[in-house]
Amino acid sequence: MKQQKQETKEKESQSSSLVEKIQQLGQSTIPNAPDSNIHVLSIIGQVEGHVQLPPQNKTTKYEHLIPQIIAIEQNPKIEGLVVVLNTVGGDVEAGLALSEMIASLSKPTVSVVLGGGHSIGVPISVSTDYSFITPSATMTIHPIRLTGLVIGVPQTFEYIDKMQERVLQFVTAHSNIKEEKLKELMFEKGNLTRDIGTNVVGQDAVKYGLINEVGGISGAMSKLNELIGSKKDSQELIQ
C-alpha cells in the first residue's frame, strides 16, 4: 500500500514538473525519446526581447532559448537541432541574437517555417545549415520599425539604417538571396496594404533563394539525419 502511494506521488510530481516546463519554457520532453540525438527548438508567436509583452500575447522569450542553445552545444548526446518557426517577428536585437547563436552552433541544424516566419523570423529561419518552408507558409519581409517615442534627429535615422544593415547582412550571408533582391522585396510598395514590404509564400521563398527547399517535418528530419551522418563520416576520416 505504501509503495503504491509512493509511486502515485512520484507520477504526480513528474506530471507537475512537466506542466511547469510547458508553462515556463513552452518546451516538453515528451516528444523526444530519452535516447534521442535531436533537439527541437520551437519559436512560436512573438519573439519577446527587452520589453515584456502583454500576458494575452503568445510569445517566445529569448532568455528562455539562450540556455537551451548553449545546452545543445554542450551536450554530447545531442547531435542535431530542428528549429520550428511560426512567428510574427518581434524584438530585432533578440531575434538577431538568437540567429547568431544558432548559426554559431558546431552541430548540424535545420529549420522549418510552418504558418509564418515573418519580420525578424526571417534571419532566424535562415540561420540554420538548411531550411524548409511548407507550401502554405509565408514570410513577410519589411523594413525595421520602431515603437514608442522616436526622437526626430539624423542620429535616429542613422541608427535605424545601421540596424537594417545588420539584418540585411545576416540574411544574405546565411541564404542564397542577393542583397539587391532582398532590398527590392523589403521596400516594395503595393504588396502590403498601406505598408512597405512583401509577403513571400512557400515556393517563392525558395525561388528567391531565401529558403533552401519546400517541405515539412519529414523532409527536415531526413535532411538533419543526413547532415549528422555526413559530419560523423568526416570526423572518422580525420581520425
Structure, explained:
- With 239 residues, the protein is of the alpha/beta class.
- It has one domain (31-238): 2-enoyl-CoA Hydratase, Chain A, domain 1 (Alpha-Beta Complex).
- 46% of the residues lie in helices and 20% in strands.
- It is built from 8 helices and 8 strands.
- The chain has helices at 2-25, 62-74, 92-103, 121-126, 154-173, 179-186, 202-207, 217-238, and strands at 38-48, 59-61, 80-90, 109-117, 130-133, 138-141, 198-201, 213-214.
- A 6-stranded parallel beta sheet has the order 2-1-3-4-5-8, sandwiched between helices. Strands 6-7 form a two-stranded antiparallel ribbon.
- Strand 3 (80-90), helix 3 (92-103) and strand 4 form a beta-alpha-beta unit.
- Helix 2 packs parallel to helix 3 (92-103).
- The chain is globular, with a radius of gyration of 20 Å.
- The mean pLDDT is 81.
Helical coverage, percent range: 40-55%
Total helical elements: 8
Distance between the termini: 56 Å
* Shape summary: globular
Strand content: 15-25%
Helices and strands: which structural class? alpha/beta
CATH architecture assignment? Alpha-Beta Complex
Q: H/E element string?
A: HEEHEHEHEEHHEHEH
Q: In terms of per-residue confidence, which ranges show pLDDT below 50 for 5 or more consecutive residues?
A: none
Instruction: Give the CATH level 1 class.
Output: Alpha Beta
**Which strand order does the major sheet show?**
2-1-3-4-5-8
- The domain tally reads 1
**What is the name of the CATH topology?**
2-enoyl-CoA Hydratase, Chain A, domain 1
* Oligomerization category of the chains in this entry: single chain
Question: Can you say what the CATH homologous superfamily is?
Answer: 2-enoyl-CoA Hydratase, Chain A, domain 1
Major sheet = 6 strands, parallel
Radius of gyration: 20 Å
E-strand count: 8
